Amino acid sequence: MKPQYDNKLLSSFLFYLDNKILSKGESFTNHSSLFYPVENLYNGYFTYAAPFKQMVCDTSVTGANDLSGMYVNGVLYTPGSGSLISINPTQGQAYFNSDLGASVVSGNYAIKDINIVITDESEEKILFETQHFLRPKVNEIINGLAAETLTYPIIFLKVNSASNEVFAFNGIDNSVTSIRAIIIADSAFLLDAACSIMKDCKNDRFTILENSDLPFDALGGRTGIFNYSGVNDDKRPIVWRVDVSKILPSRGQFVNLNPNILCAFADFEINDIRTHK
User: Fold this and answer.
1) What phi and psi, each to the nearest 5 degrees, are found at residue 219?
2) What letter does residue 55 receive in the DSSP assignment?
3) How many CB atoms within 10 Å of residue 47?
4) Which residue in 53, 48, 56, 38 sits closest to 77, CA to CA?
5) What is the pLDDT of residue 40?
6) Which of helix, strand or coil describes residue 38?
7) Virtual CA dihedral for 199, 202, 208, 209, nearest 10 degrees?
């Protein structure tokens, strides 16, 4: 099935919110590391992963290192050169079409202070059943992260509800969508900062992105420069309302939360005047 309005809205909101947090909060750390061989995700390709995810791939974020290529034994290769096929910044992985054996693979990149993903899981499953991994500490064995590994701090996005309300004649409706952000942090400072940025999203408009706006291949790798501030500037949907509430782990159904994490909900009401016939 082709992507529909709700699919495009949620993914576009993810790129908007990610850019907002990275730019306004300067929520990234430039870093260099080795990449380690991990289980191959795709037949015919060999996967090498960093110890961290996610990486900044938006060149409009000032000061963030852009992982445009990989070093193999000190020689820089860009995708399509040597045996390097693609770099997936969301997974923190690079894909090669040959086994590099004992070669030293490394890269320079910017690691996000808080990751952001789309989910279809319930809040209960995210908060109680999903195991989240803190970024490795210096006294731990450093390895690459597998694709299914989730690290926090992290923001989960999901559509809670959606409706079309009559706005004008000729089939013009106000599409009202409620998007919930579930924020899981490892410090009160980070949680408060993220919630503050989200509250300040009120009255912002953002762009519904099309496939042509996103230079990513089937492996999740970037095929060109991605500059969020330079995409189609038809900013139509508006963040009409934002409600933020913190979760207190000492109360009610939340007593089973991991005591080392702090959580909050941010509920966004998105309004979009459009025709959908």
Assistant:
1) -90, 0
2) B
3) 22
4) 48
5) 80
6) coil
7) -40
Q: Report the pLDDT value the prediction gives residue 138, as an integer from 0 to 100.
A: 45
Its domain, for residue 25, covers 5-275
Per DSSP, helices labelled H in the chain are 5-25, 123-124, 188-199
Q: How confident is the model at residue 28 (pLDDT cuts 50, 70, 90)?
A: very high
77: left (phi over 0), alpha (psi -120 to 50) or beta: beta
Helix %, strand %, coil % of the chain (to 5) = 20, 40, 45
How many domains are contained in the chain?
Answer: 1
Q: Which residues contact 164 (CB under 8 A, 6 or more apart)?
A: 173, 174, 175, 176, 276
Q: How many residues are there in the chain?
A: 277
Structure tokens at 81: 């050169």
pLDDT in tens, 217-256: 888 888 778 889 877 677 789 999 999 998 876 555 555 5
DSSP characters over 60-88: TSTTPPP---EEETTEEE-TTSTTEEEEE
> pLDDT confidence of 141, banded at 50, 70, 90?
low
Tokens linked to 1: 């099935």
Q: For residue 256, what is the enclosing H or E element?
A: none
Give the residue from 89, 96, 110 showing the smallest Cα distance to 47: 96
